[in-house]
Amino acid sequence: MKKSARTVLTIVMDILVLAAVCVTIGIVVRFFGSLANTSLGESYLRFASLLRIPAGFEGIDSPYGGSFDVNATITVGVVLMLEWALSIARRRA
Length: 93
Known about the structure:
- The chain is mainly α.
- The chain has helices spanning about 5-30, 35, 40-50, 70-90; strands at about 60, 65-70.
- The radius of gyration is 16 Å and the shape is elongated.
């Protein structure tokens, strides 16, 4: 594989990891209802909702006034598995 193709693949992998981190932060903010109800929390959750896969699962109420976002958790798993598959492809090339 050419060096430029490996560089592009690495950039895509980095973007996937960054997306997974952003969605994970959204999971934490939504889990704690007091964070989710702040103006910054609401803004961040709007952003994070753009990144998650609508898998159709309902959130699970947390003891902290928020909810556990199952759809976002599925998104993190899918994104990290995709990144892992790309890393294998890059390594074998």
